[in-house]
Amino acid sequence: MMEQYTNQFINGQWKTGSSDKTIEDYNPFSGESIVTIQSADKEDLEEAFQAAKKAQIKWRDTTPAEKQILFDKLINVMQQQRDDIVDWLIKESGSTRLKANAEFDASVGIIKESASFPTRMAGAILPSNFPNKENRVYRLPKGVIGVIGPWNFPLHLTMRSVAPALATGNSVVIKPASDTPVTSGLLIGKLFQDAGFPDGLVNVVVGRGSEIGDEFVIHPIPKLISFTGSTEVGQRIGEQAGKHLKDVALELGGNNAMVVLKDANIERAAKAAVFGKFFHQGQICMALNRMIVEKEVYDAFVEEFVRLVRGLKVGDPSDEATLVGPVINKAQVERIQKDLQESVEQGAEILVGGEADGCLMQPVVLAHVTNGMPIAKNEIFGPVASIIKAENEEDALQIANDSPYGLSGSIFTEDRHHGVELALKIETGMIHINDQSVNDEPHVPFGGEKESGIGRFNGEWAIEKFTTVKWIGIQSGYREYPFF
To answer: Which of 57, 268, 386, 403 makes the best surface tag, with the fewest CB within 10 Å?
Structure first.
């Protein structure tokens, strides 16, 4: 299997990339090289898109029952290979064993949901204002979907596009993240191959963004580009796709806030905040960036939060007891440390942690943070918790909304109805009352507002995104025209 992961996966074949460049895949905890992949170039990309286009024509007409049988086989294959998949997530993305297993389960969940899509591709028959005419609306696959996978939840967040795209009759070409080329691409291609999906339906091209990134987006064959990643890259993809009138599904950055009101259960809020902040080292688009706490309970929240953080085990992600593993690479550590240092210089106080050893960074808790500090203003994507004191509820609302992002969020209050009223005022695509911000269910719409993205994943919203509709008007009798 390792040998296959040094190659590209195109039209059911494992082939050496045509570029003279390579991509080195490193273990972020040990620093060891896992695999070296010969990169793809534009010729490989062209071959992949042509294969996907050809395979989609036959797949489009495959019956729902036949599609669902293959999805059932895919789930069985994944269950049989669970241990190997979990090990890959640990060694390639720095996932703790807890997170890797949760990601595996989430991926299976999205496949199960997607397996229902072939029988949910509903159209409509609408009346006409013209006599003896019938209007039929057909829901059809878009064609070929380009999927650009992320490195933080590489398996699940790539599968979240691939499985719905296939289930709605499309084919896909995946460009995996360079930090996780196996778990966000090549392993997925192998899973679909092992499950017996037709050749060419899933293709994986591993290549540098500088060599095939732009071409992947602007190529005329893919009808939609699905991207999960940073807002900066997402904006560029959106700009390029828009120029070519190509649809996009963009799930981008977040600066998610937990608002803790003065009537909240502080013990429960602190536990939820620790999970929402430090799960997968905070490298989650939905992770809590800011905890905004009303002044009456600020000190109590900080004390309980700090107590819990001091008990987190940091270290080797393969250890069952580890709760916080490595950041994905040293460049990310340096970026986080820079924002941390600048925020301390502006008045933030480190209550816990801050040390870094390679890619392993101790959890950090910052008090006396203001919303204009880099650590609160920017998306952290790392194990740093910022706690902001709010004068009152109105101040907390203003702080929460004072961000260009709007992905997820959280509110803790004993008055659930009032929590919903406040939630409606926070500019975000998702928000949770008396729970933390990291939530994803395969049948519930997932997506953000503002600079956190465009479109919604999961359930019927995924069906809408990965399909198009076609109006066919049928005139059953002679229609009179005014010219004759």
So the answer is: 57
